[in-house]
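quick one, two chains, predict together pls
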Amino acid sequence: MRYELYYWPSIQGRGEFVRLALEQAGAAYVDVARAGSRGMRALMRWLDDESLEHPPFAPPYLKAGKLIIAQTANILLYLGARHRIAPANEGGRLWTHQLQLTIADFIGEVHDTHHPIASSLYYEDQKPAARRRAAEFRSERMPKYLGYFERVLERIPRGSRYLVGSKPTYADLSMFQVIAGLRYAFPRAMGRLMRDYPLLEALHGRVAALPRIAAYLRSKRRIAFNRQGIFRHYPELDDAPMRKDGP
Amino acid sequence: MRYELYYWPSIQGRGEFVRLALEQAGAAYVDVARAGSRGMRALMRWLDDESLEHPPFAPPYLKAGKLIIAQTANILLYLGARHRIAPANEGGRLWTHQLQLTIADFIGEVHDTHHPIASSLYYEDQKPAARRRAAEFRSERMPKYLGYFERVLERIPRGSRYLVGSKPTYADLSMFQVIAGLRYAFPRAMGRLMRDYPLLEALHGRVAALPRIAAYLRSKRRIAFNRQGIFRHYPELDDAPMRKDGP
């Protein structure tokens, strides 16, 4: 079976968490909206199709045989069970999903740093609120989330190297993507913060070096970060620049 | 096995979605932080316990035998499989979870109407941003989400009465709670909007009349809506009042 991924063609966005899982799984898939001019029409069609019994609310969604599965974490739950990128036992499966849902909350807060008032408005129309929200995000929320995942890594059994244990799961792939995205969006704040999270730093490198992920990151399938996605670099939302000449 | 639910004792909050599922399941559970003076200490202990291999990021969490499960939708996924409040087949299970994750996104946006800048700040310190965000929420997001769930109900097989089909699932219980909460928080906007969503209106009444839910809602176990929870009534965030004497 060849999966069909439906997601916006010009951003990493939430679709990237699914792309990373499909790549690490070595699954056959087509990224429909990037596969030609009919792709975008196909993407929009499912959103509007009145004959669809289980309509998605928004992209990404994955067509897997007769199933159409939406919501990023739900797609990963499905792929995890099929492709050994999550534990098979109930406790491990739930724990992996719990980590993913916490990552989803984190991502939602990243998005709202540049869109604190409404997704439907331009960033430029909500800049003062964005500055305030981003400042709180950098000082309170980033350390809270990153510190949490560092603690998770501190507690894995000796000899394990991934969030859930000895093998990489979709939660590790997502954590890699979050760190890469935060580095792009908040380079100064991340430069300051990541010194406190050596295990997360190592995890990021370890995932990037997984052979299938490394090949994907080098390929044209990997879209570059940009100012349309979740992770956006606006210098005014990052830490203030360091002064070069002292106080 | 008696479940232990850990959640803040004075609000419905995200814990309420778990409480409703436990009640409809007829499961034996103790709402730990409400069960006596040691309850809050117990709740905080799990958050800080360094010996815990799978620490929760935040309440609610559920102790089920040896498992400690956090993230509302993840807890419901677990309970759904055990207590027949979700379909047993894979497609139905994923669809129910997909609806729940969309409800979770909706709830996150409700919360941010009164806290658009930071959860750590008082509402009073983010009022202008809250007014703007709430206005966008009422005009764009509420109709988008409510319209989506109305469409889901339009497409269920003839003779079915719940979101996923003939039997109530945890997604129906959560949808009931969202409508009840929105009615409390935005009575004027909901009075205007709900006329367009007769199937959701009927679903709300149907869930409220389920014998176990009806008994729960009458009991002292049901905490009243208040201004500490997710759904908060601030008149200035609702529609403007109707003028009584014409234009």
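Residues 90-210 of chain A form a domain with the Glutathione S-transferase Yfyf (Class Pi); Chain A, domain 2 fold (CATH 1.20.1050.10).
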